Every structure is written in structure tokens, then in C-alpha cells.
Amino acid sequence: MATPKSTMRDRSLTLFDLAPGKVVAGRYQILSAHRHGGMSATFLVQDAESNATLELQVFPAALFENTDQARDFSGVLEAWKRIESEAVLAVLDVLVRADGTLLFVTEMPPGTSLRNWLTENKQMSAGEVVALGTRLLAGLEAVHAAGQIHGDIKPHTIHLDATAKSAMLVDGGITSGLWSAKHLGDKTALIGTPFYAPIEQFGGESPDVQSDVYNLATVLFEALTGVVPWPGQSFLEIFQAKLEKRPPTMGSRAPELEVAPELEAAIVGGLIADRKERHANARVFREALEAAELD
Predict the structure, then answer these.
(1) What is the spatial distance between Cα 59 and Cα 146, in angstroms, rounded to a whole number?
(2) What is the mean pLDDT of the chain?
(3) Residues 72, 93, 152, 171: which is the catalytic one?
(4) What is the pLDDT of residues 18-45, one digit of tens each?
């Protein structure tokens, strides 16, 4: 794998270097702080070369044990530059500084997160959920065809445009890529968010195609019903609930809601604990959604 280019500056970035008006890597002018990330600082920037407003995520050198880990992580992110889908946020640039700080540049995410949308509107109609799911699953097909895994699909990592009719996956590969770069092996601590993670990840399995399917099925269940399939106040409570072989019915979680059986079956097919019974991949899931008859 080719080593991504580095800015090769010896001095570490400081908060002063990331103040509005400052220029990073010789071309990205900081405009303002943007959405929050658990492992990075995120900014809106103006690209001097294209004049476009983009998003810059800064992963601090302290996140890594050494610069080799930072470069391993950058290699995962570099692979996302090859993914072309209207439903996947485009990765434009990945830079590793000499001190191990990693700069990750993408197009600007549209509108707002699905989490913010659900907080304001609670739930979507059946037609909106089918449209959301088929679009995002088509995006996942492109991700998986490129040999990549999103690894952390949840309402926070899905963005909607102002009309809520167009959706996009963001932050793909970051969580799983960090674990891989840190050389923790296939058996790791839980990656992702417990509400959206499949049972195998509670046992330390690395994310894969079917865990992405499970993540998105959980999101669609919540978008349609207004609640997650398995509630819980703790990691252990959620884990114990997910030990059931079959997911809860939508009627048990949202008694007032009437859902077409074909649509419920399509979504629940992505939530089955046994991977042999779960939708095998994004294409199978998408086709099941497209075939669902809506009342």
C-alpha cells in the first residue's frame, strides 16, 4: 500500500493553529468548528484550490501510539476515496503530519443528522423509510464492493438534506479503522453503539458486511416506529435483550402503529441474531425493501 502523503511539519498543531482564519496544510482555511466527534475535532474549511466549503476532521497524535499507527489508519481512510456513491460522503484528502496528527478532509455533510431529525419529528412514514433504506443500502453496496466496512451506522452517522428526501452515510470506516490501525486483532472491545450493534460484536467480533446490515436495519426500525428494537439502560441490559433469537415485533414496541407485514419482515430480516438467517448482504436487504408492499 502506498504511503499517504504527509505535510511533514515538525511542530504539532495547537488550538491556535485551528482558530478561524488559520490555514492548515497550506490550503484549508478554518471557517468554524462543526459537528462534534468523539475522537476528533471537526471544522468547516474553505479549500484554496477549489474554493469549496469542506469538512476537516483532526485526529490528534495522542490517539496513536506512534506514527505508524496513524499511517495505518490513514491507509483505511485513503481506500474510501475510491468509493463513488451519492449516498456516501466523499473522502477528498488524507494527510499525516510528521508528529502523527491525521487530517481527514471530506465534502461537507448535507443538512442535519438523522438523530436530530428524529428528535424533532420522532418517526418517518413507511414510504420515507423505504426510500431512506434503499438509498443507503445502495450506498453500502458500493462500500462493500470496494472492500470496506462502515462499522458504525446509526442516526448520528446518517445525514439528511433539508427536504429529508436525500440521505448520506458519513464517518465511514473511522471507528473500525482506528481499531484495525491499533492492531487489536479480530477480537476487540465492542465497536459502535450498543443499541445498533449485532450480538456478535458484544463478543468482540470485528464489524463486517452483515454487521453493517444489522446496524442499518436497527436504524430503519427506529425511524419507522420511533423507538429502538431493544431498549435498555445499560450495556448488560441491552446485551441480554439481544440474546433472544427473534427480534421484537414492531407492534410490541409501537402498539399504535400499523406496519405492512412485508415491510416489517424486510426490516426484521436484518435484525436476526443468527447471521445464517440474517440478510446476507446489502443487496439482499435492499431487494427485500423494494419488494415490500405498503398499505
Answers:
(1) 24
(2) 89
(3) 152
(4) 899 999 999 999 999 987 666 889 999 9
Please report, for residues 58, 83, 168, 206, 234, the alpha-carbon distance to residue 130 in angstroms, rounded to integers and kept in the order given.
35, 23, 15, 28, 30
Higher pLDDT, 235 or 115: 115
Contacts of the segment 117-125: beta carbons below 8 A, 24+ positions apart: 117/155, 117/160, 117/164, 118/155, 118/222, 118/223, 118/226, 122/226, 123/222, 123/223, 123/224, 123/225, 123/226, 124/164, 124/223, 124/224
Q: Which three cell numbers stand for residue 234?
A: 445499560
pLDDT at 39: 81
- The domains of the chain, with CATH numbers, are 16-107 (3.30.200.20), 112-291 (1.10.510.10)
Residue type for position 57 = Q
**What is the DSSP secondary structure assignment for residue 40, as one 8-state letter?**
S
Distance of alpha carbon 262 from alpha carbon 228, whole angstroms: 19
Q: Name the residue among 86, 87, 161, 153 with its Cα closest to residue 117.
A: 161
From the list 39, 42, 171, 57, the residue with the least C-alpha distance to 114 is 171
**Strand, helix or coil for residue 102:** strand
Q: Are the C-beta atoms of residues 273 and 242 closer than 8 Å to each other?
A: yes
Judge residue 19's burial from the number of C-beta atoms within 10 Å of its C-beta, 0-12 exposed, 13-18 middle, 19 or more buried: exposed
| Residue 120 confidence (pLDDT) | 96
Grade residue 8 by pLDDT with cuts at 50, 70 and 90: very low
Residue bearing cell 505535510: 7
Q: Which three cell numbers stand for residue 147?
A: 472492500
Q: For 274-291, how does the pLDDT look when each residue is reduced to its tens digit (9 = 90+)?
A: 999 999 999 999 999 999
- Output the nine-digit C-alpha cell for 188: 476487540
Q: What integer pLDDT is reported at residue 134 of this predicted model?
A: 97
Element at 148 (helix H, strand E): none
Residues whose CB falls within 8 Å of the CB of residue 159, separated by 6 or more in sequence, listed in order:
89, 109, 110, 111, 112, 113, 114, 167, 168, 170
Q: Indicate if 152 belongs to the active site.
A: yes
